[in-house]
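Per reviewer request, we include the raw input and output of the structure prediction for the construct analysed in the revised manuscript.
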Amino acid sequence: MYISSSLKWFWKLVVLAALVLGSASWIHAALNPAQKHMAGQTCSGCHLGGDDVDKGNAHLLVAPQEKLCAGCHPNSIRASHPSGIRPVRAIPVTYPLDWKGDVTCSTCHDVHGSTHGLMRGNARGRNFCLSCHDSSFFSKMADQGVSVISSGHVSSVAAKTDLSGLDVDAFTVQCMGCHSGNGDPRGASIDSGKILRHASNSVNHPIGRRYSESFQKGRYKPEAVVNQRLFLPDGKVSGVSCHKGYVKEHGKLRVGKQGSALCFECHDI
């Protein structure tokens, strides 16, 4: 079959264009190995400016950052460094506050970044925390801050202990990495009956149980009601159901024990 010279040149140009585009795509991938966080999301999902968002209006959001981030990271919001609060001391410019002057998710995280953890700055671990906190803040804690310095979110750090034989949530696994009776006077343990035993043995309570199963037996409040003041990760009773991790008094009860108030958050008798 006869092919004119002009048609041959046309196909050569097509092949050449494909090679150029392919090379450009490869170069782009090489220079941008990690996809940016929020890629593929519409601007209007977070910004009041919608598709016309710019530096001047980017700070205007359709909802508080905590609520927006919780849409994809609900557990991180429930058990993490406090967010949506005004700091009591000056914060380095590396860690920006929101337009109200509050510490928010984006103070520590570059929400449109692509690095591991989206962390701002170069400091990590204890040095990261000391960027804003002074050393006395941690020295006043019973464990010198070890429990909170490792991560700003309970579930984001690999567990230090093996509880694979128990059906407990990821939060409890991480908590037990330190609270496992390893010489720590505050230590706790989990026995074969999935009972969390505190060091004092004053309160021993089942964990790793699905709250819905207990609710079906009667005399328990609805899960949605319980979650308003306590925390049932993945619908399970957890170490963080009753205890707070990221407060000055690490391990503080979410609700006081006076008059068995904490018990009545779940039990309806």
